[in-house]
Amino acid sequence: MQFRNCLKIGSHLVAGTFLAVLIAWGGGWGVCSAETAVDKRVEEFKAGMHKDASHGEEGVAATAGHGEDKKPSVEHAPAKKEKPAAHAPAKKEKAAAKGHGHKTPVAHAGGGHGGHAVAMDADVALKLLLEGNRRYVSGHAKGPNRSAARRMELAQGQNPIAVVVSCSDSRVPPELLFDQGFGDIFAIRIAGNIVDANALGSIEYAVDHLGTKLVLVLGHERCGAVTAALQGGTAPGNIKSIVEGIQPAIEKGKARYTGHGELLETCVKTNVKLVAEKIRTSPPILSEKVEDGMLRVVGAYYDLDSGQVDMTYMPN
Questions:
Q1: Residues 215, 162: contact at Cβ < 8 Å?
Q2: Please, are residues 127 and 214 in contact by the beta-carbon 8 Å criterion?
Q3: Of 95-109, 221-235, 268-282, where does mean pLDDT reach its minimum?
Q4: If 0-12 CB within 10 Å is exposed, 13-18 middle and 19+ buried, where does residue 289 land?
Q5: Is the distance from CB of 136 to CB of 177 less than 8 angstroms?
Q6: pLDDT for res 275
Q7: Do β-strands 185-189 and 162-166 pair in parallel, antiparallel, or remain unpaired?
Q8: Separation of alpha carbons 300 and 280, rounded Å
Q9: Distance between CA atoms of 210 and 203, rounded to whole angstroms?
Q10: N or C terminus: which one in the chain shows less Cβ crowding within 10 Å?
């Protein structure tokens, strides 16, 4: 009995031991399984984090990429601001070419609107013209005031020193034979150096608007218009009006002719005198200027051969 009991007790011990071992082994397996599951989840979490991080980096990279795409527009912005600055000097030069910049005052350059510079005295202006003619005759013409700078300065206004009424003959250019330049002479040229309403209006503009104080009427040697009038007959076309305008000078010239020299020269000089007197007495502007001592009208004769200008009409 005791033996049986011992066996029972022994079997129970073995069984209990086996069960304990089994439970211990199972618990360890369960723990291992749990740890394995946890490790697996940790790895998945890490993988997910890595994936999110990758996406985040891609997103940042994409965003940076888009930012880089927009960068050129930012870089072009200063260029737009600099563009007007690049054109600014041209505008400035242009403004300076047009007289908006700083310029040195120009002699004889007036505003042309009644606010012109102080006009040159008639006697001084006549002296300058005759001095210029002497240079021209001697072959020492200076050709003054003919530069590009002078042209640009005069673009803003004029103040000529004299009005010269001369023949339209191509051999009698007043600027050359008086050795003057741009803006110095207000030239009125017509065949026979006669004046009609249009010519008188032009003279009035120079005298009253520009302040010019000298008018010089210039006849010349062997004038074709005076020659035609002297020969008589009927002139064709509109030449007839020119010949008719010179006829009074032909009649008075013949009456004055003494037989010395050429009749044509006498008629030319007579024509100069009559034209000058017509200008001096033309109302209301010119005649008043003469009476007030603000205008002087004279006459001269130009020799084609020598180039010399001689004064032929000098009223007080």
A1: yes
A2: no
A3: 95-109
A4: buried
A5: yes
A6: 98
A7: parallel
A8: 15
A9: 10
A10: C
Q: N- to C-terminal Cα distance for the chain? A: 185
Lowest-pLDDT range, 33-47, 192-206, 219-233? 33-47
Gyration radius from the chain CA atoms = 55
The string of pLDDT tens digits covering residues 9-27 is 444 444 444 434 333 434 4
Average pLDDT (19-40) is 41
Nearest to 207 by CA among 126, 114, 131: 114
Sequence-separated (6 or more) residues with CB below 8 Å from residue 303? 220, 221, 309, 310
Class of domain 122-313 (CATH, top level): alpha beta
- Judge contact between 217 and 300, C-beta under 8 A: yes
Residue 310: strand, helix, or coil: strand
The answer to whether 309 and 302 have CB atoms below 8 angstroms apart is: yes
* pTM assigned to the model: 0.64
Calculate mean pLDDT across residues 255-265.
93
- Concatenate the DSSP letters of all residues of 230-298 into one string: HH-SPPPTTHHHHHHHHHHHHHHHHHH--SSS-HHHHHHHHHHHHHHHHHHT-TTHHHHHHHTTS-EEE
Place of tokens 């069960």: 19
